[in-house]
Amino acid sequence: MLVTTTHLEQTSSEQLVPGSRPLPPDARIDQVRSISPEFSKFLYRCVGSGWNWSDRLALTRAQWDEVLRTPGSETWVLWVEGSPAGYVELMGRPGAAGTEVEIVYFGLFPEFIGRGFGGALLTEGIQQAWQLDTRWERFAPVSRVWVHTCSLDGPSALANYQARGLRIFKSEEEVVEPQDASAGLWPEAGPMESTGSARELPVEA
User: Fold this and answer.
1) Which H or E run contains 102?
2) pLDDT tens digit sequence for 15-58
3) How many CB atoms lie within 10 A of CB 152?
4) Regarding beta strands 73-80 and 142-150, do their DSSP bridges make them parallel or antiparallel, or are they unpaired?
5) Alpha helices in the chain (DSSP H)
6) Buried b (16+ CB within 10 A) or exposed e, 180-199
C-alpha cells in the first residue's frame, strides 16, 4: 500500500490558531503524571486500533515504561463525564536552537469523534507543547513544535493540524504493509451464555 506521510510544524507559539469550540463544562484535560505503561497502552490502543497504530505493540512493559520515563515525555488526557475520551503524548528533545517538541500521538476514542472535541484537545496539546520547558529543569525554551501524520490516519487529522496553524514542511511516500492494530483488542462476537445482563449466581443459605 502506498502511504503518504506529511510533516507539519510551528516555529512560534503565535502561529497557534485555537479551536473555536471550547470544552463543555463536563470535560477537562489533565496531565497524567507518572503514567503507567498499562494506562498508556490502554490509551494508545483505544485511540489507534482503528488507524493501524502498531509501532509500539511489540514493546515489552519495560521498554514502554522507558519511553514514558524519558525526560520531556508528557501525556495529557481528555476526560468527558469522568471517562477518558482522547489524549496527546508529547516528547521534548534538546535541539540546536532550543527544545523541539514532537506531538507523538494525538487522537480521540471512537465514540467521541465528530463531537467537537478534536480542535479543543489539539489546541491544548499545542499550548502545553510550547510551555513544556517550564515543567522540566534544564530544558531550553521551546523553539519548535512538530507532528507527522499519514494517509492511514483519520480523514480529518491533517485538516485539524492545519486548522490549528501547523504548516507542512515535508511530505513523502512509501510502500508499506499496514499491521492490524485491532488484533486482540476485542474477541470475535459469539453467542451469549445467558439472556440476562449478568450471570445468575446461587443464593447462599
Assistant:
1) strand 98-108
2) 999 988 889 999 999 999 999 999 999 999 999 988 889 889 99
3) 16
4) unpaired
5) 37-48, 61-68, 118-130, 157-163
6) ebeeeeeeeeeeeeeeeeee
